[in-house]
């Protein structure tokens, strides 16, 4: 790996998982546009899948007792199907179209978070399956299906502690589904794993600093700043040829 690409990887993983730790969302949405500066979409997704795997191992083990497991079980089928379709599109889709689709998704996410974040959830069970399917699809394609899962989990979980733990469980389910499929499709390789090992200290530092700063920062201002950055990155991805 070229030094410039390695530095982009370090920057993306640090900022992505720092933001993920501080505000609880948007890690992949922050990291992915940075990764695309120096590598293909498939390589970027491979690295993100690995670091979400590392993150899930740590977080799920800590939050296991608080996870609402029946909610996770209801999402298994939709997630497996959605992730499989998303990875298939990632493998055979046109990179330019996919990047523009990512830009559109980021802008929709910003709009959802800004205007619809108080949504109480998805009440219809059939819609819950559809949202889980599309959440899996965007998780397989861009590692960015979290907002759709939030809308599903909100319907079944009221307690915020359980909600956070259950979303961590959902992330673990997505990762457990995504990583083997990426390996089978030869999108995720041994070289990706090898390169990621050198970035783990940066990943752990980002998580540590995010936890330290979480209680000291104005969460609302931080979220607004992140949404502004996401809005800019979404526009750039849409107009960049």
Automatic annotation (TrEMBL):
The chain crosses the membrane at residues 6-32, 44-60, 72-90, 97-117, 129-150, 162-181, 193-209, 221-239. The keyword Transport applies. Pfam families: TauE. GO terms for cellular component: plasma membrane. It is a multi-pass membrane protein. Keywords: Cell membrane, Membrane, Transmembrane, Transmembrane helix, Transport. This is Probable membrane transporter protein.
């Amino acid at each position: 790996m070229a030094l410039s690409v390695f530095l982009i990887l370090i920057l993306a993983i640090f900022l992505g998982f720092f933001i993920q730790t501080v505000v609880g969302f948007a890690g992949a949405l922050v990291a992915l546009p940075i990764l695309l500066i120096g590598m293909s979409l498939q390589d970027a997704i491979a690295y993100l899948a690995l670091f979400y795997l590392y993150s899930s191992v740590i977080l799920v083990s800590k939050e296991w007792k608080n996870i609402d497991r029946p909610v996770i079980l209801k999402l298994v089928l939709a997630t497996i199907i959605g992730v499989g379709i998303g990875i298939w599109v990632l493998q055979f889709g046109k990179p330019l179209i996919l990047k523009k689709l990512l830009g559109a998704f980021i802008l929709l996410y910003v709009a959802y978070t800004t205007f619809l974040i108080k949504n109480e959830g998805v009440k219809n069970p059939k819609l819950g399956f559809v949202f889980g399917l599309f959440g899996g699809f965007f998780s397989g394609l861009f590692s960015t299906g979290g907002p759709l899962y939030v809308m599903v989990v909100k319907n079944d979980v009221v307690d915020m502690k359980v909600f956070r733990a259950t979303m961590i469980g959902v992330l673990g389910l997505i990762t457990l589904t995504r990583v083997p499929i990426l390996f089978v499709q030869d999108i995720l390789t041994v070289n990706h794993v090898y390169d990621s090992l050198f970035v783990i200290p940066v990943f752990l530092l980002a998580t540590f600093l995010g936890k330290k700063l979480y209680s000291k920062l104005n969460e609302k201002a931080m979220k607004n700043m992140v949404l502004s950055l996401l809005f800019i990155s979404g526009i750039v991805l849409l107009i960049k040829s």
